[in-house]
Amino acid sequence: MRTIRTSISRCALVALSLAGCQWTEFDDLEAKAWVQSTEKPDANSNDYGVALARGLRTSADGGTLVVLGAGQALYTELVYTATGAASLDAKTELKLNNQFGIGNLDLQPVLIADTATDDVALVTNSGGDGSIALLAGTHTMTSSQIFGPSTPDAATYMRVASQAAAPKPSQILVAALDAVYGSGIMPQPVCHLVDADGTPVSVRGIAAARITQTDFDDLVVWSAEGKLYLYDGNAFDGCATPALPLSVPVDVGFKPEPNASMHLVDGHFLVLAGHHQSDAASRIAVYDLTAMNATPAREPKLIGAPLDRDGMKATTILAAEGTTYVMAGYPLASVDGTVAGEVLAFELDVTTGIDPTPVATLHDASPESNQQFGRALTTFPYNGKSILAVSADNEVFAYYQSPLYGETRR
Amino acid sequence: MKSRRFLVIAAWVAACVLAIFAIHTPRSFAQSSGALAKAQAAFDQAQQDYLQGKYDEAAKGFEDAYGARNFPQFLYNAGAAYHMKGKKTSDTVAYTKAVELYKRYLAEDPQATDKAKVEKAIAVLEAEIKRLAALPVVAVGSGSGSGSGSGSGSAAPPTPVAPSAEVQSLGEVKVRGLVVIESEPQNATIYLDDKKRGAFATTPWSGSLDGEHKIIIEKKGFKISESSIQADPSKLFVLKAVMSEEGYLGWVEFASNIEKSEIYMDDKTIGSIGRTPFAQNIKPGKHTFYISSEGYDEYKQELEILPGQTYTVKADLHGTPIGKINVQGLGIEDSAIWVDGQRLCERGPCLKSVPQGDHTIEVRRSGYKTYVRRVSIQAKTETQVKVALAPEPSRSDAVVAYILAAGFTGGGIYLGLQANKYRDDLTSEIKAGTPPPDSNDPRFLKGKIFAIAADVSYGLGALTALGAIYYTFRDKGSPSTGLIDVRALAILPQLGPNYAGIGMETHW
After folding, report:
1. A6 within a domain of the structure (yes/no)
2. Which residues touch B80 (CB under 8 Å, ≥6 apart)?
3. Domain of B24?
4. Long-range contacts formed by B208-211: CB under 8 A, 24+ apart
5. Are residues A252 and A235 in the same domain?
6. Is A176 in the same domain as A306?
7. Do the beta carbons of residue A95 and residue A72 sit within 8 Å?
8. In Å, how far are A34, A87, A177, A188 from A135, measured between CA atoms?
9. Domain count of chain B?
10. Measuring CA to CA, how many Å separate A408 from each of A29, A53, A58, A82?
């Protein structure tokens, strides 16, 4: 009897060991996942991931990503290790209401990163007066400048002539209607933009571009009328009089809502990306600004055909494997019947423009309703390479690998 | 008196001459048949005379029958006729003849089954003869006279004297019928009822048989004869078997050093064909014979039987010490008894012989716990096992455990398949990258939970199964019990004034 029991017990144990599932396989698989997903930290922010920006400008070992939360305004930095682990840097976490008196953020706050330093700034409304919060970099969490008017329509970092001699963080320009405010230079400049006949130009997007100068930037403006202007950068270095455009404006043919995106590629190719101010339409277009570097400046040249596709809310430029892509987020796009959002990758060729056929589509592998995948996009340095980060509702995705580039983890 | 003695002597001489003549005269079956008819006729007449109280005639008839065929039983019947005459008439001569014939009867049949009874009758009659001889002679006549001298006149028969109490105690003597079995040729073996009971006698045979019997007569080289008889105790019954020759069979004679050993041929399951000593016609061919006796090793011999040939199978059986095992108990009639893994009895109670030594006894009954006991059987002992079987306990707990184990295992399989599906999906999606799952994809967690749940379920299933196995085999409830009682058996010679034999005694 004892022999029978022993034999049966052994058989049962052997069968159990053979039949058992190895749950650690899922840990291994998770480590192999291309995408690192980070959910909102244990904070009071109930709308985490409304804006993304790179952390450090360069990072040869791992990388950092700035993520803003709305609801209760929250600044966080996600730290990614070289091997792919991600964690929240608790030391840099800021509740903006406590630090700057910024309560709730807009759903699409303007978060900009300086190209010359590690500075990252938030340009937003603080309830009556416009606010600029320097969140990271040289002036990390040490100051904020508040000036009016209350509602910023566009912002950018821009280097001006007075900053060239003594390297400083770039000046932040904030546009509201036709006024452009400068920061970091005292007294604070306030320039009013007009067109050639003196008509105020209402701003929807601005970008610093080194077109006519070599040591400082000019300013490219996308107006509410759908026109593209070039202004002399000197006008914003202690500006006191209305600035006149350097060139004849070109009509983009698309009237964007405020905070339209303007990305500079290879120094003089400008990617415009805007959501229409009155409907769901959106447009991405590429202009060659080279012609503007003339006397008198000429119109920028549209390259290829504009890409019109409804629902675009955010864009970023990804350079990977020798190819440049315009990554466009459509957070209300339907995925497999679920309104979860997606990000489309369009190949950008500076000679032919944007290929309207996406070369890659990114979305959550398990899409959830109202996930808003792609509501904010950015790229950030990771292990010396530029990788894509996408935010969704209370979730941030960092793509260590994608159909557009290979494995970046070590 | 002299003349009476002379007659007795003459009768003795005549009887002896007749007996010698009967013994030494070669008798053919035809002659024997005629003499037998004469004897039967005389016997029948004597029987009628006896019943009518004509004892002298009856005695003469029986003696005539004896003269025709010298069966001792005729002498007894003649003696019985004189015995009854003496008893009725107090005739010492008749008593003397009775004693004489009784003695002849015993002399011719010293193995008579009623030898003791006849010897007692002889003693009583001889005492009665002496008692009667001692009585004064009383003459009873008519007329009167006185004086001495001798004269002649008619004397009345003497008044009978009442028999003694001893004679009275012998009761009424009855004459006996006789069964005579003869065969042509003679010297055939007679079996009574069943050959397995062994040889009864050889032809010619005469004697008493009561009731209905099957008579089997067999002789080498002759066809077997089978007859049924209904013996009448008051008649002479003659069975004559004329056997025809049969040359195509072989004749096998069996013997063993142990009498009444069982003889088996070819297939032991059909039972024994007889007991030693034994002989039988056997069909030609190859046969295997087994001779066995309880307590002895079996003897086996193979023979190629040829027609008309005679073979001898002689077994020298060697004994094995044996003891008896006696299994009893409540409900034993529905139990099977096994010893050393072999079924000893299909159902109890079971009393069987087993070789001396250690044996494992099992008493099995459906629905009850098997009783298992190792016992040591000693030679010449009876080991009595009184078994009380305990009912098998319910195994519902084991059944429930098996169901749970199956449920857990089934659940584990389902969960494992789900986990494997998640793993395979994630693996393929990670490999394809369209779209690549992120690290927070819920399927990682779900898959892990399913995998862990599957393992937990497997574990629970295994533990439950082990429990079920334990519940299946655990000995629940009181066990079946048995009470062992060993008794000594002794087979001893038994001797008494009127008997001899062997007897068995038990001591405990």
Report:
1. no
2. B50, B98, B173, B174, B175, B176
3. 2-133+161-176
4. B208/B73, B208/B113, B208/B176, B208/B177, B208/B178, B208/B179, B208/B233, B209/B179
5. yes
6. yes
7. yes
8. 29, 19, 25, 20
9. 5
10. 17, 19, 15, 8
**Does any domain span residue A132?**
no
Domain containing A346 equals 22-99+313-410
Residue A292 DSSP code: G
Domain endpoint, select from B315, B340, B372: B315
Contacting residues of A for B444, CB less than 8 Å apart:
26, 29-30, 33
Chain B interface mutation, best of A2, A13, A16, A26, highest count of B Cβ atoms under 10 Å: A26
pLDDT of residue A308: 95
| Candidates A25, A362, A366; nearest CB to B423 | A25
In contact, B171 and B145? CB cutoff 8 Å: no
Residues from chain A that touch B458, judged by Cβ atoms under 8 A, are 16, 19-20
Indicate whether A297 and A234 sit together in one domain.
Answer: yes
Residue A345 sits in the same domain as residue A361:
yes
Domain end marker among A261, A279, A310: A310
Q: d(Cα B280, Cα B254) in Å, to the nearest integer?
A: 8
Longest dimension (CA), chain A: 107
Within a domain: B138: no
- The ipTM is 0.71
Q: Report chain B residues whose CB lies below 8 A from the CB of A86.
A: 439
Chain A residues inside the 8 Å CB shell of B451: 21-23, 25-26
CA pseudo-torsion sign B204, B205, B206, B210: negative
One domain for residues B44 and B107: yes
The answer to whether residues B285 and B198 belong to one domain is no
Distance between CA A389 and CA B125 in Å, rounded?
Answer: 145
Name the residue among A8, A23, A37 with its Cβ closest to that of B440: A37
Task: Compare A294 and B43 and report the one with higher pLDDT.
Answer: B43
pLDDT tier at B139, thresholds 50, 70, 90: very low
A168/A112 Cα distance (integer angstroms):
16
Side chain identity at residue B264, one-letter code: Y
Instruction: Kindly state whether residues B167 and B91 are assigned to the same domain.
Output: yes
Q: What is the pLDDT of residues B390-441, one digit of tens each?
A: 988 888 888 999 999 999 999 988 998 888 888 888 888 888 877 778 877 8
Contact between chains at B473 and A5 (C-beta distance less than 8 A):
yes
> What tens digit of pLDDT does each residue of B198-227 get?
778 888 887 777 778 889 998 888 888 888
Q: Are residues A241 and A299 in the same domain?
A: yes
The count of domains in chain A is 2
Q: Is A375 in contact with A392 (CB distance < 8 Å)?
A: yes
Boundary (domain end) residue, out of A254, A278, A310:
A310
User: What CATH number has the domain bearing residue B17?
Assistant: 1.25.40.10
Q: Which of B415, B421, B438 to mutate to test the interface with A (most CBs of A within 10 A)?
A: B438
- List the end-to-end C-alpha distance of chain B, in Å, as a whole number: 66
